[in-house]
Design brief:
elongated
Length: about 180
């Protein structure tokens, strides 16, 4: 048995578009305001940031008969985000932790090292992933729910699209107004 879970396309698209919406006008505004940092440097830095964000959102959760793994693409530098592997028999518990915003995330706690590994919650098929974890470990997972619901990302996507419209107006204005 091998099962692969990828980051939800809704989450990936929303976060990539949000990054673009927040950063796209900056090189144009840099030119318009004659900022100290050249627009070309800013554009290169923002493009590199987009590539790294894409890499961070390209993780996969792999379940097999031996355990669970979180892996990133080979091209993504491991010093930014490291994957991990945990054997089923090494999982002692799933511990809940409250986030700063009041949500709950869960960590796998290993038997031997007491190290904690975040349960990936942004994947397509999260309920199926949790069911596999319960079947393989015997842990009770009835109360585990994803941190963010799809409707939350839909709302964020709608506001991001509105922001992109404003970006279009900002860029148009920066290009057409005399400096």
């Amino acid at each position: 048995m091998i099962d692969v879970f990828k980051v939800s396309p809704l989450i990936r698209i929303t976060l990539l578009l949000l990054y673009i919406a927040l950063t796209a006008p900056l090189p144009f505004l840099s030119n318009f305001t004659h900022a100290a940092i050249p627009a070309s440097w800013l554009s290169i830095g923002l493009a590199i940031g987009l590539v790294f964000l894409y890499g961070a959102l390209s993780d996969r959760v792999i379940l097999d008969n031996q355990g669970i793994s979180l892996v990133y693409p080979r091209w993504f530098p491991s010093f930014f985000r490291k994957g991990w592997t945990l054997a089923w028999q090494d999982i002692k518990a799933l511990k809940p932790r409250t986030t700063g915003q009041g949500g709950i995330v869960y960590y796998f706690v290993s038997k031997d090292s007491e190290q904690a590994y975040l349960l990936p919650m942004r994947v397509v098929g999260f309920a199926r992933l949790v069911k596999h974890v319960e079947e393989q470990t015997g842990l009770d997972t009835r109360d585990i729910r994803p941190l963010a619901q799809p409707w939350m990302y839909l709302i964020l996507l709608m506001f991001t699209l509105l922001l992109l419209l404003m970006d279009g107006w900002t860029i148009y204005t920066a290009l057409t107004l005399p400096h």
